[in-house]
Amino acid sequence: MRKFALVPSACALVLLATLAGAQQTDVAVGGSVLYSEKNPTASAGFIPPPEKGGLYPSFSIVHIRTNHYGYSGEFAYVYKRQLYNGYQEYRPILYDFNAVYAPHLVYKADAVLMAGVGGQTVLFYNQFGSCGFSSGCAIHLNSTDLLFHLAGEIRYPVWRRLFVRPEAHYYRIINNTKNFYSDNLLRLGVSVGYTFGPK
Question: Which CATH fold would you assign to the domain 2-9+26-196?
């Protein structure tokens, strides 16, 4: 899990560089759940499981200029390893980079609409390892695919610069069916964050 700590550290460096000329920068942490379709029949010999469930902690940075446009980056991973078809542990990791439009809604609420690209890396853990003379022993295999991302969020300040943000994320993962039943994923959750710069 220590390697996952590098991502928030890298994001913090990007945040510091962004703040120099920022109009508004939101930094948030959140939690969400992943949903996906499952195979309605059991006629096939090998049935790829749906990629769903689990608690997904997330970390995001959203930078918005005075014209309501901006950009964002987000990282989310499943907290506890999932079980693939009842026997092999795996962990999905999702990351994306987006163009953002953030119009004002009503009262203090703002919408945050985003579209972008990213990737999904799935770590498949092998409890017995796979050893080779030159490569040593590996305990997991990686599967990485390109994804397209759409999201809608409602940002609402609750106290001074602190805000809460319910959110829905749709992912279209290219070639995800080599491991799972569907290329389409939906992640629903909520984030809590802090705003830097003018509000």
Answer: Porin (2.40.160)
